[in-house]
Amino acid sequence: MNKEPESGSVAPTSGIGQRRATAQGQKNAGYEDRRAQILHAAALLFRTGGYRGTSIGKIAEEVGTDRASIYYYFSSKEEVFDVLVTDVVKGNLAIAEQIRDSSASATVKLRKLVVQLMCSYAEHYPFLYVYLQENMAHVDPKRKAWAAEMRRVNRRYEAAVTDIIGQGIDEGSIRAVGEPWVLAYGLMGMVSWTHRWFNPNTAEVDAKTIGESYADVLLSGLATGAVPGPPATAG
Predict the structure, then answer these.
(1) Do the domain assignments include residue 109?
(2) What are the tens digits of pLDDT across the range 2-41?
(3) Would 4 be classed as within a structural domain?
(4) Rounded to whole angstroms, how far apart are CA atoms 64 and 46?
(5) Are residues 54 and 165 in the same domain?
(6) Is the pTM of this model over 0.85?
(7) How many separate domains does the chain show?
(8) Which of 32, 64, 70, 190 is the most exposed, having the fewest neighbouring CB atoms within 10 Å of its CB?
């Protein structure tokens, strides 16, 4: 019986890795479609069985193939998870930067941001919560490129939140009770801490309601109540 590689291992040395690299280089449509099927199956399993309870073997069974075939498309369970998480995290970043760059007041932006982030945790449960527990400085060497990319995305997200708070202080809608980055970290930490107790499948309160409640708490302490005027023009 072939033993499934341990977590973090690479594909069996049977030429699969070479064939996978060749197919990736050719950008074969069928190859990408099959990868998408595997990702979809893995997403369902991660949600129902959790990250630790999901194996390459279970993913293969869900897809209707064998483990060796999965290794033709992904080198490990970690790679499958990394691909799933990357799209979600980058999507959240795009939304955060879109909110930051909108013409709304900073208080409106912060409310949208908090609710969106909380809803994303629920929609993509448990991917983002597992991701929150990752130590990007201590990952398998094979995942260092991915970890570096995620650190860059994290910094951009943090910058977007910090910028919104800075905008609010400048326009007078947010109280200057601390450095913008300190307030931003507090905001993100408040929402992220839900990974300790929130499960959208069993929670009595939905994610949107939780996000709105958090936004109310934050803005009750930060908002000045002032209505920002139009931006100053040169001349």
Answers:
(1) yes
(2) 444 444 444 445 565 665 665 555 556 788 889 989 998 9
(3) no
(4) 17
(5) no
(6) no
(7) 2
(8) 64
